[in-house]
Amino acid sequence: MSEAGRAPSRAASPAVAAAASEEKKSKEPEREKLPPIATANAGAAAGLDRGAKGHISTFSSIVTTVNQKKEAAENRSSPTHLVFPNIKNVRDLPPICLDVRQKQRLSIDALSSEIKAPVLPEPVLPTQPKTMKDFQEHVEKVKSSGDWKAVHDFYLTTFDSFPELNAAFKKDATASFNTIEDSGINAKFVNAVYDALLNTPQDIQKTVLKGIINSLLREWKGPRTKDDLRAYFILLQNPQFNNTSTYVIYAHLLRQITTLVEADHHFLIHWFKKLSQKRFKQLVERLLQFISLRLFPAKPEEFPPITKCSWWIPSASKVLALLNTANNLVHPPLIPYTDFYNSTLDHIDLMEEYHTWQSFGNSHSRFSFCQYPFVISITAKKIIIQRDSEQQMISIARQSLVDKVSRRQRPDMNMLFLNMKVRRTHLVSDSLDELTRKTADLKKKLKVTFVGEAGLDMGGLTKEWFLLLIRQIFHPDYGMFTYHKDSHCHWFSSFKCDNYSEFRLVGIYA
Question: Which portions of the chain have biased composition (kind: Basic and acidic residues) (predicted)?
Answer without folding.
Answer: 21-34
